[in-house]
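Contributing new records

If you add data, match the layout below exactly. Sequence lines come first and carry their own label; structure lines follow with theirs. Keep one chain per record. Anything else will be rejected by the validation script.
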Amino acid sequence: MSRFPPAASGYVSAVKFLFAPVGIGAGLVAGFAAQKAFEALWGVFDDEAAPQPDQREIEWPKLIAALAIEGAVFRVVKGAVDHSARGGFAALTGSWPGEKRPDPA
């Protein structure tokens, strides 16, 4: 049961507004954690630092692999951190800041 019952149509907007700073902070933490996780994972594949798109002399397959791995790691870490932050917010306020379940297909 919610500690703050929905009394008006602006309730959902208020919850989203209150969650915004939490979401921003969680996003920053997720970005930092994802970068560190990617660097550690890339170290398993190659002794050199991951190639960057602005480097002139790199191999395309190596660049594509690095970008794909980095994107996947970032998405997983960001999703996990965001969901955990929403769970913590809900535990404190009694209101989930988002949808309860996905829309049916």
